[in-house]
Amino acid sequence: WLSDRKKRALQKKDVDVRRRIELIQDFEMPTVCTTIKVSKDGQYILATGTYKPRVRCYDTYQLSLKFERCLDSEVVTFETLSDDYSKIVFLHNDRYIEFHSQSGFYYKTRIPKFGRDFSYHYPSCDLYFVGASSEVYRLNLEQGRYLNPLQTDAAENNVCDINSVHGLFATGTVEGRVECWDPRVRSRVGLLDCALSSVTADSEVNSLPTISALKFNGALTMAVGTSTGQVLLYDLRSDKPLLVKDHQYGLPIKSVHFQDSLDLILSADSRIIKMWNKNSGKIFTSLEPEHDINDVCLYPNSGMLLTANETPKMGIYYIPVLGPAPRWCSFLDNLTEELEENPESTVYDDYKFVTKKDLENLGLTHLIGSPFLRAYMHGFFMDIRLYHKVKLMVNPFAYEEYRKDKIRQKIEETRAQRVQLKKLPKVNKELALKLIEEEEEKQKSTWKKKVKSLPNILTDDRFKVMFENPDFQVDEESEEFRLLNPLVSKISEKRKKKLRLLEQQEHPDKEEEEEPEGRPSDAESSESSDDEKGWVEEVRKQRRLLQQEERAKRQERLREDQQTVLRPQFYEIKAGEEFRSFSDSAAKQRLMNKTLEDRLKLEAKNGTLNVSDTTVGSKQLTFTLKRSEQQKKQQEAEKMHRQERKALRRPAGHLKSRRKRGRPFP
């Protein structure tokens, strides 16, 4: 009932679904599957079901559906007369018998009474039909006409079967008897009263057992299933059953099959499939599907079971012990070998694992080594019933403790439904409360899944100091805060009120502060419909308040200046520096206040700056460092000294020049 898209999504999530193996594609019916059979060559699997009534043929070599044919009415049972699907006979619930060939519908005929089962006798090409009548109708397929029916002693017949070795025909009646007929002489050769034999000392019978299943195996063995849930195994040479197996469910037996390799019998009712040894009756294994079983088919010479259930899906079970996998799904053997290499641990539901210390507490150390304790790993397995009985004797007040624990759990659950107190940090409580409210609004919003979740500042270690160090406390009285958050006053009133309530919940013994008159505790400031107008008014109000506060501060400073008495201040001059008047510092301050252009002009005028043009058309600036008065005096003294020396050297040079000219000295 799932779409392909949902199946793919389920395979991604569920591991069990992903591990399932789909042997045959679309191996299902629209609503319910009623009967299922395998062709004699083992290549085709045919199944009938509803709704609408139809037959489906699956090709095992292709692992898919070969064809599907819709029918006029529901099918009671069907049989393949050929080795493949080319000749099929259907028995409908409206008394019609329908023949199909390889191309499709071939012929339809009708029997006088409602049919319940039929069998095909190969040597004579006769079809034997049993149903709500004492007669067994015979239809000869070679002549194409009905033959004289067989008259039984029963009011109605439920099932029938023909032995493939000697051709004995047997039919099961509603009276709980099995009548055996010889087709060669058309006379009854034997009668078995199975109803009386099925009643044992342990069984409870509420109604007369009728025959619901019948199956031959070999020349001498026959298994009979009753409507009360018993299976009787007969040897045809005796009228007493060799073995009676009870399903313990009281449901009619649907089908019986023989498994020759392990001498097993597979019997199925609507709830369970049991496999048991035909010699001892010991249970080999059992299968219990989720839905009711309508029919069971054992794939020839293999360990595969096919089931028709009261559900669209038809069941496929593979039991490697019964036989190898069919040729068309031989990979199942490799899968089972891999599973055997990795066995899963067995869970003991009826046993309790206890350690040696647990045994000492229970006083059961004397049982070590006895059959009551089974050693396993570091402890022992003991019967769960024995464990509960001993524990009740050792601790008779265990129920009272259990009851107290349950009451405590209920109280804790009711406490969890109460309003949880929010623990706020010591620093920036209002900011923390604001962040908590924003986080709650994000969780409640509808676009929570579409937006990528951002980290919360409260839980981020990078911002942890902001809520611990008092230096990071937000100053709400500062000018920047009040102008950048013009509407913070309205929101902060609600938040402050919430903070007070939280503090009162954390400290209930603290006395509550009295509220100002005219403002009840539950009063909330009305919000303006025009947000922009309210924002502008709030900004103007904050500006007026800031101006008033600044004016008050200036008046306070002026009042303090008038009250202070001016006293002379003395300064200490460092060694090696000359004292200049305060006018020099004022001139220096005036120079620093001038623009760069004015300062450059002044420097050029004083000679400390030289501006010249270069050959490439750019400007070249040359700065001369300023000298102090002492340096200036020293420079002037050096200049006068050079001039004096130059004047002293001048006569000597004059005499040398006169000698060179040949003039006499005066």
Automatic annotation (TrEMBL):
InterPro entries linked to this entry: Beta-prop_NOL10_N, NOL10/Enp2, NOL10_2nd, NUC153, WD40/YVTN_repeat-like_dom_sf, WD40_repeat_dom_sf, WD40_rpt
Superkingdom of origin: Eukaryota
Domain NUC153 residue range list: 460-486
Annotated spans, Disordered: 501-539, 622-666
Keyword Transport: no
GO cellular component: 90S preribosome; small-subunit processome
Compositional bias per record (Basic residues), positions renumbered to this chain: 642-666
Transmembrane intervals: none
Pfam families: Beta-prop_NOL10_N, NOL10_2nd, NUC153
Keywords noted in UniProt: Coiled coil, Nucleus, Repeat, WD repeat
Occurrences of domain Nucleolar protein 10-like N-terminal (ranges): 1-342
Chain ranges of the Nucleolar protein 10-like second domain: 347-395
Compositionally biased intervals (Basic and acidic residues): 501-510, 626-641
Gene Ontology biological process terms, A to Z: maturation of SSU-rRNA from tricistronic rRNA transcript (SSU-rRNA, 5.8S rRNA, LSU-rRNA)
Cellular location(s): Nucleus, Nucleolus
Leader sequence segment: none
Family from the record: Belongs to the WD repeat NOL10/ENP2 family.
Protein name: Nucleolar protein 10
Organism: Myotis brandtii (Brandt's bat)
